[in-house]
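Thread: "does anyone have the structure for this chain?"

Original post by V.I.:
We have the sequence but no experimental structure in hand. Need at least a predicted one for the grant figures.
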Amino acid sequence: MSSYRKGFFGANTGLLFDSGPPSNPTIFMTFIKKKKDGSWEKPSQKEGRTIKLSSMDIFFILPVLWGEENAWSTSYSFEERKISISFERDSENKENLKIKAGDYLLILNYGEIQVFKALLEHIFQEKVTS
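Reply from O.Q.:
Generated one for you, tokens below.
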């Protein structure tokens, strides 16, 4: 397949995932929030926060999704803005995963984690072998 797009949504935060083509070693995660009027931020209007991750980043995220590690985090600078991103097992409920990018926080439940994990495993395999 040439590209994968998938959305994960909580009550107030969403994550739009875009793998790009297999020949490109990066993926994009765009975080959006629900506004006070009930509408969602629109990346097409420069709203939300987009994070560019490499296939090496996926390599470090997967052990958290597998439950082998409790957390992984890193920081990026883009257009003079620094942002931290973290993937962390919820300390109160290990079945949940907290994904945080700056002030955007999305909590995935067990089922969503399984879908996210399968997606990242597949994309990692494609990007490393293409």
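V.I.: this helps a lot. The two ends are 12 Å apart (CA to CA).
O.Q.: and The chain has one domain: 5-129.
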